[in-house]
Structure formats: C-alpha cells, structure tokens
C-alpha cells in the first residue's frame, strides 16, 4: 500500500525530529525533571531555564524514548522556547487535547508539533507523545512555587 503525500511528510518530519532532535542535552545550573512512561519505558529528563519574568529562556531534554516520544519532545522545545509559562501551559493543553482527537485549528499555535495530531488514531501512543509536554507542565509548576 503506497503512502499518501501527507503520510510521507508526516513520516519524514517525525523521523527527522527523532534522529536529529532539537535542544537535546542538559542545561547547566537548572533542576532536571525526570518522568517516565511505564507503559513503554520512555524516559525524559527535562531542563528548563526561566527568566525573571517567567519566560522560557532555554530548554533541553535528554533520555530514552521511542520515535514519537523523542520527536514530540523535540517539537515541544521548539514550540515553547521564548514563551511565557502561561503561554507554554496553554500550548501543552492544546497539544494534549489534539492527540486525544479534539479537532481545532492548532497548526498556527503548535507549529510542527501539530503534525502529531495523527497520534489520536493510536491511543496506545498518546502517552508517548504527551510525556515531554507533561514534564513541561510539572517543570512550570515547580518554577512557580
């Protein structure tokens, strides 16, 4: 069965982010938040540097994960860099609803991460896609305490 052009684009973007993730590594002098997906074994270590105004000044992730988990983390870091904590939380909520099948116009807000809307067709992969976004929510929660 031949892939459609859209399916081919999806595969290319996801594969590229998985093989060459953006913002991979650890930030010095920041707390590292570790989360894991017990269902499949994905682990993310997220470092977020906020400025005094609560804007994400820098962000990095490391860990071990499947293609979707790694690609989603890469796309998430691109989407939230330079955003305020509240803007980043809003994006995390939009992403979470999107991968659970809610239809809304997200391309403009999520950038390349919107391509992961197809995960909604595979419920077993939703936790893979949302792991990094959930880590971001926890990192923001910790920073605000």
Order of strands across the widest beta sheet? Answer: 1-2-3
Give the overall shape, derived from the CA principal axes.
globular
Distance between the termini: 52 Å
Number of domains: 1
CATH overall fold name:
Sufe protein. Chain: A
Mean pLDDT: 89
Supply the number of helical segments: 5
Helix content: 40-55%
Unreliable residue stretches: none
Sequence of secondary-structure elements: HEEEHHHH
The first-level CATH class is given as Alpha Beta
Question: How many beta-strand elements?
Answer: 3
Assign the CATH architecture. Answer: Alpha-Beta Complex
In terms of quaternary structure, the protein is single chain
Query: Could you say which structural class the secondary elements and strand pairing correspond to?
Result: alpha+beta
Short description:
The protein is α+β, with helices and mostly antiparallel strands and 145 residues long. It is built from 5 helices and 3 strands.
Description:
This protein is α+β, with helices and mostly antiparallel strands. It has a single domain, classed as Sufe protein. Chain: A. The protein is built from 5 helices and 3 strands; from the N terminus they run αβββαααα. The chain has a 3-stranded antiparallel sheet with strand order 1-2-3. α1 packs across α2, α2 packs parallel to α5 (126-143) and α3 runs antiparallel to α5 (126-143). It is globular, with a radius of gyration of 15 Å. The relative contact order is 0.19.
């Amino acid at each position: 069965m031949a892939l459609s052009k859209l399916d081919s684009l999806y595969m290319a973007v996801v594969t590229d982010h998985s093989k060459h993730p953006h913002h991979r590594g650890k930030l010095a002098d920041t707390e590292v938040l570790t989360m894991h997906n017990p269902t499949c074994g994905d682990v993310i270590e997220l470092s977020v540097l906020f400025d005094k105004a609560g804007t994400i000044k820098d962000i990095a992730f490391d860990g071990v994960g499947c293609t979707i988990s790694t690609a989603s983390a890469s796309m998430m870091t691109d989407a939230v860099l330079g955003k305020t904590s509240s803007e980043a939380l809003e994006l995390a909520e939009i992403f979470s609803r999107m991968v659970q099948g809610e239809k809304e116009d997200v391309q403009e807000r999520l950038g390349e991460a919107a391509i992961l809307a197809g995960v909604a067709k595979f419920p077993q992969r939703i936790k893979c896609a949302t792991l990094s976004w959930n880590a971001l929510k926890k990192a923001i929660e910790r920073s605000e305490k």
